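Side project, low priority. Logging it here so it doesn't get lost.
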Amino acid sequence: MFPVLFSLCLVGITHVALADEDCPRPPEVPLATVNVNKEAYRPGEDIIYQCNPGYVPQSSSRRYVCPSSGKWPTIIFRCLPRKCTYPGPLNNGEIDIIDLNYLSVINFSCNTGFVLQGPESSQCQADGSWSASLPECQPVICPPPPVSEFGALSYRKIESGDTFIFQDRIKFSCLLPMALFGSETATCQADGSWTALPECKSVECPPPEPIEHGFINYALRGSFHYQDVVVYGCNIPYTMDEAAESRCEKTGTWSNIPTCKAPCNIPVKRATVLYNGQKIHVQEVKSMRHAETIWFFCKSKTESCSYKTPTQCIDGQLSIPDCLDEPNWFTNIFKKDPANMTPCSN
């Protein structure tokens, strides 16, 4: 009897030892849930992990099966935040971004001189889209400058377009005889105002000064204002090598006062010269006008040749070259005129 009883106990103990064990509640995975969540799972039952909204699997190992040992295999499933695409660029502005993950917030701002039109921020949503669309940065608009339609000061727009926006420029002018004082341009600023505007003022010049050996052509008038013009002239044989016109400036002075330059007499009685492209006797040149040039012929001291030396009439003064050997009646007979000698090579 005892051997039979012992055998039955041994079989029972063996059956218990070989029975399958249940698996406990599976390990929790951050930001994820399982499809069936209970206290125990029979061997062969499976579970599937899925990420919470706004998160995506790091790997494809989502399904796990309870083994007969009752111990879940190592769970490697992980979830990462979903990323939204970069929403920019924001023209004339900036996007303040820490990251592009789910629930992250980005902020929009505009550069100086531009105004934000649209949302100031946007949040990355669970489906990978943004909660708000990208705004626009519109340029600041300046009102028309405070210039009277019937005043002396007027302006024109330099850039194209009908409105005045940030950094647009305008150019001013005054109705004559008013003169413009200040910058002739103004710029639309970031705060919607203009840089300093100029003003128009009346300017009067004194009567133009007379000049020696000359005259002034102008209509008789009691006063001279900004941009009025007078024209100077010189009496014959004096000449003027400056601007003949003089203009009344905004400073209340004339732009220039020219002078009349005297002609030159040639202090040489006998010589052949080159004047106005012709070789002639110096006696034929009665006088030279200011700034004219005459060429004298000089004999080389070392060779049997001659060379030309120029000299210019400067307000009645004419310098004779030191190399000139003015001929007399004796040298005219026995010496060859340098003007007829072979030109020196150098």
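Brief comment: The longest strand covers residues 293-299.
Revisit when time allows.
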